[in-house]
Amino acid sequence: MAQSVDNPSPRVPSEEFVQLFTRTQRPLYLFILAQVGNVHRAEEILQETNLVIWAKLDQFVPNTSFVSWARQIATYEILKHRQRHRREKLTFSDAFLAAVADEVVQLAGEQERRREALEHCLEKLPASDRELIQQRYQPGNSGKELAAHVGRPANSVYQSLGRIRRMLLECIQRRMATEASA
């Protein structure tokens, strides 16, 4: 079926755009939730934000911060949502919401640095420890199932996981302290 001249085919997003979009969903949801304080409204605003992001995918400038761009769109969607719900009894001032949003952005940066430190520390683990921790945190996996899978007593697996977690925590703390002093 041929496209008419009046209705050109929409631009297909690049794989990179889709990956950035997907990775941004959770931080964007938390950013919105921190400002509206209601899970259902945050989900609604996220959906509205996603529609705008897809509609404006041509406006995203590659090699810039996708998260910042998406947050800006979310901020406008939050403001629109607040305008629609002005009559409700409990509303927060714009100054308060701006302060909360700033705090969320700062915490998100800290969380991202911790995630990067965790990746670095995971790479430094011996292969057997890394494999054990990755298997444990596969969705739906429990410690007992892991113990049965690796043929070890559950207590032994729990002790190993505890040791690995302590090593990771110490590594992350050292890395974060090193970055803070640099």
UniProtKB/TrEMBL annotation:
Q: Which GO terms describe its molecular function?
A: DNA binding; sigma factor activity
- Tell me a GO biological process for this protein: DNA-templated transcription initiation
Tell me which UniProt keywords the record has, alphabetically: Sigma factor, Transcription, Transcription regulation
Q: Which domain of life is it from?
A: Bacteria
What Pfam family is a match for this entry? Sigma70_r4_2
RNA polymerase sigma-70 region domain: from which residue to which, for each copy?
A: 20-87
In this chain the RNA polymerase sigma factor 70 region 4 type domain maps to 115-168
Keyword flag Amino-acid biosynthesis:
no
Matches recorded under InterPro entries:
RNA_pol_sigma-70-like, RNA_pol_sigma-70_dom, RNA_pol_sigma70_ECF_RHOBA, RNA_pol_sigma70_r2, RNA_pol_sigma70_r4_t2, RNA_pol_sigma_r2, RNA_pol_sigma_r3/r4-like, WH-like_DNA-bd_sf
* Family membership: Belongs to the sigma-70 factor family. ECF subfamily.
Name of the featured protein: RNA polymerase sigma-70 factor, ECF subfamily
- Source organism per UniProt: Planctomicrobium piriforme
